[in-house]
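Protein details
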Amino acid sequence: MLFEVWAPLAQQVEILIDERTHRLDPDPSREGWWRTELSAPAGTRYAYVLDGGPPLPDPRSRRQPDGPDGPSAVVDHDAFAWSAPWPGRGLPGAVLYELHIGTFTPEGTFDAAAERLPHLARLGVTHVQLMPVCPFPGTNGWGYEGVSLWAVHEPYGGPEAMKRFVDAAHRHGLGVVLDVVHNHLGPSGNHLPPFGPYFTDRHHTPWGDAVNLDAPGSDEVRSFLAGSALAWLRDYRLDGLRLDAVHALVDTRALHFLEELSLAVDGLSAALGRPLFLIAESDLNDPRTTAPREAGGLGLHAQWSDDFHHALHTAVTGEAQGYYADFAAAGPAALAKTLGHGFFHDGTHSSFRGRHHGRPLDPSTAPGHRLVGYAQTHDQVGNRATGDRLTVRQLAAAAALVLTSPFTPMLFMGEEWGATTPWQFFTDHHDRELGAAITRGRRREFAGHGWAEQDVPDPQDPATRDRSCLDWAEPDKPEHRELLDWYRALIALRRAQPALTDPQLDAVTATAGGRTLRVARGPFRIVANFSDAPARVPLNAPCEVVLARPGCKLLPGAEPAVQLPARGAAVLRTTGATVDG
């Protein structure tokens, strides 16, 4: 087997296998690279030794059986017996489902999660979007402090278990997307710096020195990150990647790393003969993120739409603090704008930022499926002080708007039945000082927003993770079962009606009135009432009810209208000529 490692600053590189060291030779064709060939079957543990220092895991380790600080292990990706060929499943027309392996089930493993895949198939979603699975310290955590960017967290089951999960998902017709973090590594278990300039002090991020994308040595760092991304798609048969916080990838080079990555992924897609895609998390509201490369964009296939979330969240909750302020001030009109134009802040003043923000997206050329729309995500739930979710009552109208939108809809695990279990921030650092610092910082942050420190869950307390696990008995309870049926019916309707997957943003007409919203999507009218009192919503044409929450009814009279109960929603179909959009 060929062992090779980039260590441009080292004078000597050795590999430690079975308590014996073997010297690596400089690679004559690649500056800074070292290599050797040794017999090492799958499962063999090994570590690199630089200039006589301590043993270090391989930066490109495919497995860390003893955690981020232990030795690496050889993985033979070709040995896995996939059950069937997978043609792939593209992003247009998709309905995503974000889940966290560690809390999707109490067991917190890939194999346990795979047993719940029939539920997702019956729900009607098309793709499972996994939160990060790279190794991190301890057993439990969100995954955004991962290290070893080519490996799988061992407590989840490691590489083989992840492949079993993906294979099972494919048997159910579900694609799989993985959340990857390229903008930083966790504070513990990061052994990259001794190997080379993986980070640079030229730029700073909320996590410290930035990943080196444009300083000396950045060619190899970019290759390291892109190689990891391609390996997930190729070796684990994934359908796409979600790229965490791409606005923190500081890159001043003429060819931005994200453009380079999108080109590489498109090339791999052509080589494999199946669709692959990249979804960005970006707070820039910049249409160039998803614009095609030939049009001067980065060529990413989609991005999360926090503007749509914020507009929807303020409409259903009435919250107005922090970054919600501008959306709350606009009321349902903020939703109307985002549904037809993608961004709410498109060059407008953002009071939260104290400046103008964003750039207009052209609704005539930018397809809506390039924006991912949602009522909840791990961020928008977990970054609340107590991890509280939207309620069954709030989710009925929210679901109607998400699942009939021109965007790519995404659900957060348990949302479909109105899960009452919170999803809280939790960590499992064995370094007591680091763990205590995280607890203090979390509580201090929310104390600044008016929370009593003792009311903010301790991330290091195992009970915080346990509270965050889904309760799979809930979907069988009447109130939750009714909401689950609503989600299933909305997803089935979306799948059956091309007008509801039409991504043409300039074909969407949304009209706000008081605490109500009416959205025109071809022959369909989606109406929602966000108030705690019944409301009359005028219609621009005679309609029939397709789907409705209990208590919704068409009103007789010369002017078509529908009566919605408090927090009610309905999907209607026109039966006559329209008066306006």
Remarks:
- The first strand starts at residue 2 and ends at 6.
- The radius of gyration is 25 Å.
- The first helix runs from residue 101 to 104.
